[in-house]
Write a structure and sequence with these properties.
This protein is mainly α. It is built from 4 helices and no strands. Helix 1 packs antiparallel against helix 2 and helix 2 runs antiparallel to helix 3. The longest helix is centred in the middle third of the chain and has 41 residues. The radius of gyration is 19 Å and the shape is elongated.
């Protein structure tokens, strides 16, 4: 692959990584705790939903960019020996990186297609059950986001291992 195209691919891949994993860091360590601490329950819930609606398209675009640029980069790497061939440290590190990335995608899909709609439904019904379902859905989202962050850290660890080879 042309060095210029590969450089552009790496740049886009890094920006997408920073956006996705950095966004998770900000959400887990700043957005959730601070909004929970400084806002009343209803305002906190509304803020989290508004933040999700703003961040979700950016995270999804980052995911698409990661998939596209990642495929280009793997094919161009000298350590790549073929699909499902694990004969060196680089290929094993990439296997675990991609497993962690796949786990992040699964958790993200659960949040996006199950938990967020549950939060929206619970908001509409909050007056009938004193917000119990809403609190449970928000807590589930927070736990899944933390899981995604842990997997994201593993992605970075395995990337570091593959890069060092």
């Amino acid at each position: 692959m042309n060095e210029t195209l590969l450089s552009i691919s790496h740049f886009i891949h890094l920006i997408a990584t920073v956006t996705w994993i950095g966004g998770l860091l900000v959400i887990v360590f700043y957005i959730w705790p601070l909004s929970h601490k400084h806002l009343n329950d209803e305002t906190h819930q509304q803020f989290i939903l508004a933040f999700n609606k703003r961040y979700r398209p950016i995270a999804n675009l980052s995911l698409v960019m990661l998939l596209g640029t990642g495929m280009l980069q793997v094919g161009a790497d000298e350590h790549y020996q073929g699909l499902l061939t694990f004969k060196n440290t680089w290929t094993i590190a990439m296997l675990f990186k991609h497993l962690a990335f796949g786990g992040m995608m699964i958790l993200g899909a659960i949040i996006q297609f199950s938990v967020v709609p549950a939060i929206e439904r619970a908001l509409l019904l909050a007056s009938k059950d004193n917000g119990t379902a809403l609190q449970a859905a928000l807590q589930r989202e927070n736990q899944l986001l933390r899981g995604m962050l842990v997997l994201g850290i593993f992605v970075l660890v395995f990337t570091a291992i593959a890069t060092a080879v």
